[in-house]
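Sat 14:20. Reprocessing the chain from the morning session after the first attempt stalled halfway. Input below, unchanged.
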Amino acid sequence: MLLVLARLQSFDPGLEEAALDLGASHGQVLRRILLPHLSPAIAASAAIAFFQSIENFNVTLFTKASETTLTVYVFSQVRSGITPKINALAFLLILLTLVLALVYEANRRRKARIEAEREAEARRAEAAALL
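Finished this time. C-alpha cells:
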C-alpha cells in the first residue's frame, strides 16, 4: 500500500485533468492513465504482501499454542475445502481495502481542490492589486 501511495505522489494530476478536458470519462482516465502508472507499484506491493504473509503464516502456525489466528483458520478451512465462509471473508477484506483506497483518493482530491482554489484566489488578489 505504501508503494502505491508513494507512486501516487509522483503522479501528475495535470494528466488526469487534460484527459478529462479532452472528453475522457472518469473510468477511462482510471483505466488508461492512472492504472498503467500504478501497475508497477501494485505488482511490487502484491509480491511483498505475498511473501510477508507466507513468512508470518509459518511463524504463527508453529507458535500459536491453543489460540487460532485468522491466517491459521483460513488455512485450515482451505485445506478441508473452500467454503462460502472463506469466500465471504475474502470479499470483506477486498471490500475494506477498496473503501480505504477510495477514502484516501477522495481526501487527496479534496485537498488538491482546496489548494487550487487558494492559488486561484491568490492570483485574483494579485491581479486586483496590479490594477
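The chain is about 85% helix and 0% strand.
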